[in-house]
Design a protein that fits this description.
mainly beta, 11 strands, binds FE2/S2 (inorganic) cluster
Length: 109
Amino acid sequence: MRRGVSAPAKHLELCDSADIAPGTALKVEIGDLVLAVFNIDNKFYVIDDQCTHGPGSLSEGYVEGDIIECNFHGGQFNIRTGEVVLPPCMVPIKTYLSTIVDGKVTIEV
Ligand code: FES
């Protein structure tokens, strides 16, 4: 049985997909969110920009396949799943479901 009524999902338009070359990332600030948008083989993935370990900005990290390495202490996350790949990060990074709508990367929040 469902309890309560959840708020309808809100679509946020982040950027033009053409603005992000394959293998790179773009930092996008929208409302209270600071996000890193990645292009991996022309599929787009969105995660929180701030590393869960500290102040590192993941959009400024090093992309290797579907792994992002934080440029602060070298911790790594899987961009697709948010799972930690390499310490010192211990907490997964939040991921957002993204879709392309009219050439724009969008997420639901
Ligand atoms: S701030 Fe990212 S690994 Fe420490």
